[in-house]
Amino acid sequence: MYRSYFKHLECSVCGTQHSGSELLAVCKTCGKALLASYDIASARSGLRREEVASGGDSFWKYLPMLPLRSPSSIVSLGERMTPILRLTSLERKFGTGPVWVKDEAMMPTGSFKARGLALAVTRAHELGVRHVCLPSAGNAAGACAAYAARAGMGCTIVVPKDTPAANIEECRIYGADVRQVDGTISDAANEIQKLKKEHSDWFDVSTLKEPYRLEGKKTMGYELAEQFSWNLPDVIIYPTGGGTGLIGMWKAFGEMEGLGWIGPARPKMISSQAAGCAPIVKAFAEGKSESEFWEHAHTKASGLRVPKAFADYLILRTIRESGGSAFAVTDERAAEAVRKVGKQEGFFFCPEGATTVVALEQATKAGFVKRDAAVLLWNTAAAAKYPGFAS
Ligand SMILES: [Zn+2]
Q1: How far is the centre of ligand 1, averaged over its atoms, from the C-alpha of 116 (Å)?
Q2: Element (H, E) at 155
């Protein structure tokens, strides 16, 4: 018998409770991000981790801790748990404990964005939405277009003009209406705001401007905990644009401790950004709780070209709570890391993922990652979507 322990939505800033069965975007009181809240006490006695883990090879097995009304609503493109590979050449080079990479290139549409958009589209579909819209820096566009097509929904995407061609092409193949604007994802978001005024029935699935993409990204935390036999690595390095994955993993760790699935130990959460667009690195270094808009953002790691993340305050809070840090990486150093790891390991990092390798080097040199530390890097997308980045 299916049971979801989802209770309601709660504002991440003012704490106002909102109904979980209504179609909502952000907090009605203060306009900040809404978080899904669960009946952890009941789930603690009702859910055994081994039983949940044995429920298949995709993140849908964590359904009791996801907000769906019914499993029959699931919009799926064949998601699988993504592999974790050990990169011994990096251990030798940086003198750390084991270094692992979780390879999200294996998700449908070739990126981690599938997790969030599978959930957001499924939930929007359950709540009666017929048309979704999204500003994107690249991979979220493809995932949104694919899941919307799968659900039989309309989809409008706005991307910067210099978004990788592969992302634009896949959206067109999935039948989405794709529009291009000058500038960055922030300009794309402004265009979406304008379009929404003309189309009041469109639902915006922008990062953290609706509550359910985060729930999809949260499965990264559940999945890695299970794959590491419920002992989390010491350090997680995550390429950070909008930051949903970082915030989602942290939320998952908290929920799992409440469920009695893991103990109180937490990884240091390290954020890697591009030197040409590093608002989180700057705000972290300056001790600020929010970032400033990054002018003239430029990097070929398109997923990191986010001048101001909507939930920057949650990213910074997560990094600080975890005792983590943030590092900026040039495109040149990232490209060099792609080539080295490719040759030594047979593993092809995407540009965003490659920033985690360079951030590990910086963190090790700074003495921030200890010699025996177990480290998990994230490769967030298929490198083939970025032809020419490292060659
Ligand atoms: Zn609020």
Answers
A1: 22
A2: strand 154-160
Specify the 3-state DSSP secondary structure of 269: strand
Q: How far is the CA of 25 from the centre of ligand 1 (A)?
A: 12
The per-residue pLDDT for range 114-126, each reduced to its tens digit, is 999 999 999 999 9
pLDDT at residue 375 tops 80:
yes
Per-residue pLDDT of 302-336, as tens digits, reads: 999 999 999 999 999 999 999 999 999 999 999 99
Sign of CA dihedral 313, 316, 318, 320: negative
Same fold, 84-111+212-385 and 113-204: yes
User: If you measure from the C-alpha of residue 209 to the centroid of ligand 1, how many angstroms do you get, rounded to a whole number?
Assistant: 12
- Helix (H) / strand (E) element for 135: namely strand 131-135
Find residue 17's DSSP bridge partners.
10
Of 106, 118, 123, nearest to 145 by C-alpha is: 118
What is the reported pTM?
Answer: 0.97
Compute, in angstroms, the gap from residue 234 CA to the centroid of ligand 1: 33
CATH topology of domain 84-111+212-385: Rossmann fold (3.40.50)
- Please tell me the distance between residue 18's alpha carbon and the centre of ligand 1 in angstroms: 10
Looking at 1.10.10.10, 3.30.70.2190, 3.40.50.1100, 2.60.40.1080, the CATH number of the domain 113-204 comes to 3.40.50.1100
Sequence spans of domains, the chain:
6-73, 84-111+212-385, 113-204
Ligand 1 centre to CA of 380 (Å) is 30
Tell me the C-alpha distance between 88 and 84, whole Å.
13
Measured CA to CA, the distance from residue 284 to residue 312 in angstroms comes to 10
Distance 74 CA to ligand 1 centre (A): 29
In the reported structure, the alpha carbon of residue 23 is separated from the centroid of ligand 1 by a whole-number distance in angstroms of: 16
Cα 34 to ligand 1 centroid, rounded to whole Å? 8
